[in-house]
Amino acid sequence: MHSKTVIVGGGVVGCQACHELARHGSEVLLIDPSPVATMRPALPDLAGGWVPEWIVQRPLADMLPSQTVLVPAAVSRIDLDHQVVVANGDSFPYQQLLIAAGSIPNFHGMTFPPETMHPLNTLTDALTIRATFNTYLQETPHPHILVAGTGYTGLELAMSLSFRARAAGRTCAVTIVDPAPELLPSLPDQQRQYVLDFLMAQGVDLRLGVAIDAFDGQRAQVGGQTIEAPFACWAAGTHFAVPDIAGTVEREPDGRLHVAADLSLPHYPAVFVAGDSAAITRRGRVLRKAVNFAHYGGRHAARNMRRQQRGKPTRPFRPVDLGWIVPLHDTSIGWLAPGIWIHGRLGVRLHHLMCGLRNYSFSRLLGCLRLALNPNQGPSL
Ligand SMILES: Cc1cc2nc3c(=O)[nH]c(=O)nc-3n(C[C@H](O)[C@H](O)[C@H](O)COP(=O)(O)OP(=O)(O)OC[C@H]3O[C@@H](n4cnc5c(N)ncnc54)[C@H](O)[C@@H]3O)c2cc1C
Predict the structure, then answer these.
(1) What structural domains and CATH numbers belong to the chain?
(2) CB–CB of 177/148 below 8 Å?
(3) Close Cβ partners of 250 (under 8 Å, ≥ 6 residues apart)
(4) Residue nearest atom 27 in ligand 1 by C-alpha distance
(5) SS3 category, 121
């Protein structure tokens, strides 16, 4: 199959890019194994049963422009030197390529019995946790949530499930572990203490400098201690989503591809990378993985692809950091440009607002606005 422009991944970046390219009549081949676009920041809320499923996802087929051909497959290899993408054994040659496959959970080589360790990256992951945790709460005499990873996903998920257990009238222990010696190391001391105080007030057993050493589906070994029959969740890091990239590329330890200022790949000017797949350096630091950078990055990459098609020079991507929020169900920690720290319910409301503004339809925006006005009242499990 021949296509001039191929996009790998139909998430935040891919959808933005498809719409931007379609505005100018470009035909695009979009390859993604998932039939839906997913608002990932709302996944911890969905896993805990606090937001309805319809707000978090929309079928790609409903939202893609008519010029886009969707191939439902996972890309296993990108050969940059031969300008070909491989998915499900089929080869897709390209003239221009946008790599937008995001990132997937990194288990760091550990294996667990099937369906006993719960990652949180896709809609299916969140729905599985929602259903499984409900059964777990009903069937387990001493429920115990065990989360690996103290990044935003781990903390949000732990609190979402902990408050769900409480709403179900169950007393549930919560242990969060991380081999890193410090919680949220990029935060100033005062802000970190705010999060620590909140977690302690919720009775969380936070173990830093400690990893899950083993989990057989029944018992977890954590820093020399055994936890019996935990509900185990994995949020201990992510890595690049496409298994094999052939070519001359520079990468971060998590596999993200270093890009030039215009988001193209050095040595491969017709290949662009944006969102979680890209290592975008700004003021000497690689940008964090975030919806806003993906949203504007996807649009910018597509505009540069258009400029290239017309023989015009590409432009550098200059993202503005509007800030970030980590909602912890009942409170939050966040930072808004130009330098305002956010705490409490305000951050939870702003989180829902952000999910609405970046969502996939007007009705979903309205749904998120309702959640922002009245958080944590969502459907039960
Ligand atoms: C649980 C969770 C909570 C988050 N919370 C926040 C938050 O509060 N605020 C914030 O700013 N950001 C948050 N993020 C990060 C944010 O979701 C990402 O930065 C953003 O979605 C990146 O957009 P993307 O288009 O690069 O990747 P995605 O939106 O992840 O899209 C990637 C797409 O590529 C597809 N894909 C994967 N592998 C392949 C393959 N091999 N071949 C083809 N297609 C493939 C996937 O199916 C997906 O559709 C969160 C992420 C997670 C997982």
Answers:
(1) 5-33+72-105+238-321 (3.50.50.60), 117-236+324-373 (3.50.50.60)
(2) yes
(3) 257, 258, 266
(4) 102
(5) coil
Say if strands 323-327 and 332-336 run parallel, antiparallel, or are unpaired.
antiparallel
Q: Mean pLDDT for the chain?
A: 95
Note the pLDDT of residue 3. 53
Residue 378 predicted with pLDDT over 70: no
Please name the residue whose Cα sits nearest to atom 11 of ligand 1. 290
The binding-site residues of ligand 1, defined as CB within 6 angstroms of any ligand atom, are 8-14, 31-34, 40-41, 43-44, 74-75, 100-102, 120-121, 152-153, 241-242, 275-277, 289-292, 294
Q: How far is CA 35 from CA 5, 9, 96, 237, in A?
A: 20, 11, 23, 24
Asked if pLDDT for residue 100 goes beyond 60, the answer is yes
Size of the chain, expressed as the number of residues it contains: 381
The pick from 50, 86, 273, 291 for probing ligand 1's pocket by mutation, whose C-beta has the most ligand atoms within 8 angstroms, reads: 291
Mutate to test the pocket of ligand 1, among 28, 29, 31, 40 (most ligand atoms within 8 A of CB): 40
pLDDT in tens, 188-200: 999 999 999 999 9
Confidence of residue 381 (pLDDT cuts 50, 70, 90): very low
* pLDDT score recorded for residue 349: 97
The contacts of residue 233 (CB under 8 Å, 6+ apart) are: 117, 118, 119, 120, 129, 145, 146, 147, 148, 154, 157, 158, 161
Give distance in angstroms: CA of 38 to centre of ligand 1.
8
282-309 burial, b if ≥16 CB within 10 A, otherwise e?
eeeeebebbbbbbbbbbbbbbbbbbebb
